[in-house]
């Protein structure tokens, strides 16, 4: 249980990462991924990378610069422009549904304008899921200058699109529906220089 704990990625740039294990029985036609990050990086960095054997950017949350997030599904992406962070924790949720191709992006409990992405696509179930690196192959092929350095926590993945109420609940760390990946029952393996520490403040 990682309640009130964080992963600290200590080095910049870094070859470290965290492998997450999700119980995925079938491919995803809808999903929501949420996490909280704290960094002072100005360069591009990967937050959440979900690769299959056929597509290394099957699901990717990537921050190419401080005022921009990229959300990838099946190798294609949409960009969400955000205010440059005031060097504070940022909570992001991204959801996608195959039937409409609608991509939602929420930052700190607020929705951004929805965008269209990969209508009719199916996300593969046999996945390598990593925090802190961007995969250019199945479980590897890292560019250290896309690595994350800083603190990460509250990582979740659902096989549904969350309602607005649940998106806000994720931001506020309230009770959430059962998830494929849940911070309070996370199955993970640290690779390299990542330390689990108590959160410094709420």
TrEMBL record:
PROSITE patterns per UniProt: PTX_1, PTX_2
Disulfide bond entries: 34-93
Co-factor remark: Binds 2 calcium ions per subunit.
UniProt key word Disulfide bond: yes
Quaternary organization: Homopentamer. Pentaxin (or pentraxin) have a discoid arrangement of 5 non-covalently bound subunits.
Record protein name field: Pentraxin family member
Source species: Tychaedon coryphoeus (Karoo scrub-robin)
Cofactor: Ca(2+)
Family of this protein: Belongs to the pentraxin family.
Gene Ontology molecular function, alphabetical: complement component C1q complex binding; metal ion binding
Main subcellular localisation: secreted
Pfam families in alphabetical order: Pentaxin
Keywords: Acute phase, Calcium, Disulfide bond, Metal-binding, Secreted, Signal
GO biological process: acute-phase response; innate immune response
UniProt-annotated location(s): Secreted
Start and end residues of each Pentraxin (PTX) domain: 3-202
One cellular component (GO) term of this entry: extracellular space
